[in-house]
Design brief:
Blueprint (H helix, E strand, L loop, with lengths): L1 E8 L8 E4 L15 H11 L29 E9 L11 E9 L4 E5 L2 E3 L1 H8 L16 H7 L2 H12 L2 H31 L1
Bound molecules: adenosine-5'-triphosphate (ATP).
């Protein structure tokens, strides 16, 4: 699996439709200070479901939408589309290419898509679990993050190894099942109470 293309529209400094085509091997994005290099990384994190505005270097989610400049009016929504090569089927979808997209409007409306079909944020999280590319995975290492990882507590560092070893999906399913079990046990308890009342 590798990132083939990033399409940005109205995202931060990318007012107009901008397409970044990425080949296999090493790609470097270079440019003067303030030209938008970090905004590209923010776009990748954002489309993968980043919800923390602080992590996106803003103060509110609306800050991801192009706010206007001397030459261009502000945009009403931001959209980012990632295209991933999936010929090795690392993503559990029967497609050799997978598109992930997120759109956010000024009125707060938010949409996510997998291969142009609208989906939930949860679906995006689940799709990328154990691939190393989730929003909190290790594929994106920000400035100062290496120090942070080295200085983190063993329990925090363990999360990285769990993602790499591919057990996050199962841990998440286990948690869902435990919740369902608890709910079922409560329902059973209620049924038993009703039976006692009737008898
Ligand atoms: P450096 O090399 O200094 O780290 P950079 O190339 O990584 O810089 P970014 O931090 O990606 O630059 O981009 C900062 C630019 O993006 C600033 O000029 C800022 O005004 C612009 N910007 C951020 N959010 C928006 C927005 N919502 N609308 C318009 N421009 C924005």
């Amino acid at each position: 699996m590798f990132l083939k293309k990033i399409e940005l529209y109205g995202f931060k400094s990318f007012a107009n439709k901008t397409i970044l085509q990425i080949d296999r091997g090493v790609t470097a994005i270079v440019g003067p200070n303030g030209s938008g290099k970090s905004n590209v990384i923010d776009a990748i994190k954002w489309v993968l479901g980043e919800q923390s505005v602080k992590s996106l270097r803003g103060s509110k989610m609306e800050d991801v939408i192009f706010s206007g400049s001397t030459n261009a009016r502000q945009k009403n929504y931001a959209q980012v589309i990632l295209t991933l090569d999936n010929t090795n089927q690392r993503l559990p979808l029967d497609y050799s290419e997978v598109n992930i997209s997120r759109r956010y409007f000024r009125d707060g409306q938010s949409q996510y898509f997998i291969n142009n079909t609208e989906c939930r944020l949860k679906d995006i999280h689940e799709l990328f679990m154990d691939t190393g590319l989730g929003k909190e995975a290790y594929s994106i290492i920000g400035q100062g993050q290496v120090d942070q990882i080295l200085n983190s507590r063993p329990e925090e560092r363990r999360i990285i190894f769990e993602e790499a070893s591919g057990i996050v999906k199962y841990k998440s399913k286990k948690l869902d099942s435990i919740k369902k079990l608890e709910q079922t046990q409560q329902n059973l308890q209620r049924v038993e109470d009703i039976i006692i009342e009737i008898e």
